[in-house]
Amino acid sequence: MLLIFSLLMAGLALAGLVAAVLARRRAGAAEARARAAEGRAASHARCLGLLAEEIQAPGLALLGLAGRIAAPEGRTVDAEARHVLRLADEVKDVLAASAGPRCLAEERVLLAPLLQEVLAGVAAQLGQGRRQWRLAEDFAGLWLLADRRALRGALAQVVARAARLTREGDWIDLRPVVTSESLSIVVEDEGAGLGAEDLASGADSAAERTRGLSFGLAVARSLLEAHGGELRLEAQPGIGARAWLVLPRARLLAG
Predict the structure, then answer these.
(1) In a 3-state reduction of DSSP, which class is residue 52?
(2) How many Cβ atoms from other residues are within 10 Å of residue 53's Cβ?
(3) Torsions phi, psi of 71, nearest 5?
(4) Who contacts 224 (Cβ-Cβ below 8 Å, separation ≥6)?
């Protein structure tokens, strides 16, 4: 009887051991599948991000040529260019919504050369389309503690959007606003103002309507939020728009 009991207990122990081994194998296989799925998702996101960049560049170039080339009857080059840019913006916004927390590689960044680099990049993409840029002298000597690549990306999105909301020869101004709590990079244009689709839905007052974020700005917003900042918009149809890229004052360094 004791022998039978011992054999039974040994059998149960062996069955438990086998079950544990099988469970570990299943868990390992599930983890491997999850890692593979994450890798594929990250690869797809990188491809979509590159696609969005590839779409945006010719879209801006086409917008710059809008007044110089003829369009098929019933269509305008300007409208087609803006459609292409909206597609690029939508892809970027989808990626921004699905991205996890951003890790910053912080360094000392001299702001004026970074802004000049952004303006040169957008101007190059516009090709023959010309915008007038005014970069305030107050940016000279301003150093920030920031992720240079991320900050450049946020600025590029906002400046490119200002370029496409304006017309040939319009002015786009960039100026700093420093307070005891923040440093803001203000981008102002004299274009048509944000379209209805850019404004917060359901807003009743003018103040509320300026809080909406348009296509293409979700990426800029997420990059600024990673720095502890925010993106704010103000617009008046027919007059122009103003974007505030706000960063904590603590990121402003001594020169």
Answers:
(1) helix
(2) 13
(3) -120, 155
(4) 154, 230, 231, 245, 246, 247
